[in-house]
Amino acid sequence: MNSALMVTPRWGRSAMNASPAAIPWPLTTVDNSNWLQGENAENGGWYESEQSPGVEYLISVILWLICSVTVVGNVLVVLAFIRDRELRLKPANLFILNLSVSDLLIGLISIPFFNIWRHTVVWVAGEVACKLWSIIDYTATTQSTLAIVLISFDRFMLVSKGLQYRRYITLRLTHILVVASWVFSFSLNSIPILCSDIVLEPWVDYGQDCDFAILYHFAYKLTTAVFSFVIPFICLSVFNVIVYNNIRRRSSGFHMGRSFRLNGSTVARNVAPQSRGSSEYRKHRKAAITLALIVGVFLICWLPWYVYKLVVLIALNETINNDLMNAFVCLLWANSAINPFLYAVTHPRIRAGLIACILFCIPKTCTPLHVRGGLRSNSYDHNPQADRGRNRPATALTRCNEELQCNNQGSLV
């Protein structure tokens, strides 16, 4: 063995598995006489930093900032769902909640443990903590990808099925899909980790490192790459292309002359659709915009990481460019921090729920928003004028003021 070599990843998962939390930070050329330990040092050796202390501190601060925003944002989203029963009754919203929960786990488990590990250099928590953290980390990151696929599937069904959407996407089916995705994510990542030391000869010292022999096998890397990226990416592409083409076709139809048959006679419709068709078109267009934002940000944040993984897999090269991985990891985890803001921008009811949670306004008698955007509260006097006021769409500031007014009237329980 040469006296100096490029230390391969301490964790084989760092190059090819679903989670970025396993990346050794950073990789560098070191003197193996001082740093590499034991006969399996090539796989589990220590490393020293090639970055300046200032860069290391900057990376750490960025990760802690992402972690804080991720936790706070997704906790507020979960609280908004808890306090507003109407949010939980719509299948589309449950898919969003599913994504928020997986992002919350990333903020609570994946990022903090990884950032602490960067500073301790060696793993000091032992075997049980290593396996538990790895399973939760991998499951959450895989589930984030599947959650985006489920959201795309839901928007695809809404646009393609139209008025029959509720026949197909029921609360029961939504619960089944969400639970099945979590079971799949957990099984895909937990079984190899738990069986690694049983199937293969163990060589990891869990007092120094957190690694698993099975994660270095090409078959495992290929399997995780296919199920964590290739198949989800194909599904996302198909769903989004169909949704885009459907919305574009309907948009063109609304501005072109066309006719339809009514009671045996042909009636010309050359200008605008009837109110029902126009309302349906606006709903589908809004769904497409929401989908485009969530999926677009997801691809921007995750695609560089997955493309790099595939390049490493195809090239059969475990060498990792440290600068690239620093950027990819920060970008990838930033997606979990950005998502709550996307929900607030695209979903008025969630936005009102977030504002109410921030202002600590949680009255049981005040529902943040009506399903169609208006505020509904039992504290209002029931009169036509009040009803007309409630049915008008309200701005975020108006909703917030009305919530505060409701609170001041003594409806806080």
In words, what does this structure look like?
The chain has helices spanning about 15, 30-35, 40-45, 55-85, 85-90, 90-120, 125-160, 165-170, 170-200, 220-255, 275-315, 320-345, 350-360, 385-390, 395-410, and strands at about 5, 30, 260, 265-270, 365, 375. With about 425 residues, the chain is mainly α. The chain has a two-stranded antiparallel sheet with strand order 1-2. It has a two-stranded antiparallel ribbon with strand order 3-4. A two-stranded antiparallel ribbon has the order 5-6. Strand 5 (about 365) and strand 6 form a beta hairpin. Helix 4 runs antiparallel to helix 6 (about 90-120), helix 7 runs antiparallel to helix 9 and helix 12 packs across helix 13. The longest helix has about 40 residues, at about 275-315. The radius of gyration is 26 Å and the shape is globular. Residues about 1-20, about 20-50, about 255-275, about 360-395 and about 405-413 have low confidence and may be disordered.
Number of strands: 6
Q: Strand-residue fraction?
A: under 5%
Given the C-alpha coordinates, what overall shape results?
globular
> Termini distance?
71 Å
**Fraction of residues in helices?**
55-70%
Q: Give the uncertain stretches in residue-range form.
A: 1-18, 22-48, 256-273, 362-397, 403-413
The strand order across the widest sheet is 1-2
Count of helical stretches: 15
The averaged pLDDT comes out at 73
Biggest β-sheet, characterized?
2 strands, antiparallel
The structure class reads mainly alpha
Rounded to an integer, what's the Rg over CA atoms?
26 Å
SSE string: EHEHHHHHHHHHEEHHHEEHH
Membrane topology: Multi-pass membrane protein
Main location: membrane
Domain G-protein coupled receptors family 1 profile: 73-343
Subcellular location: Cell membrane
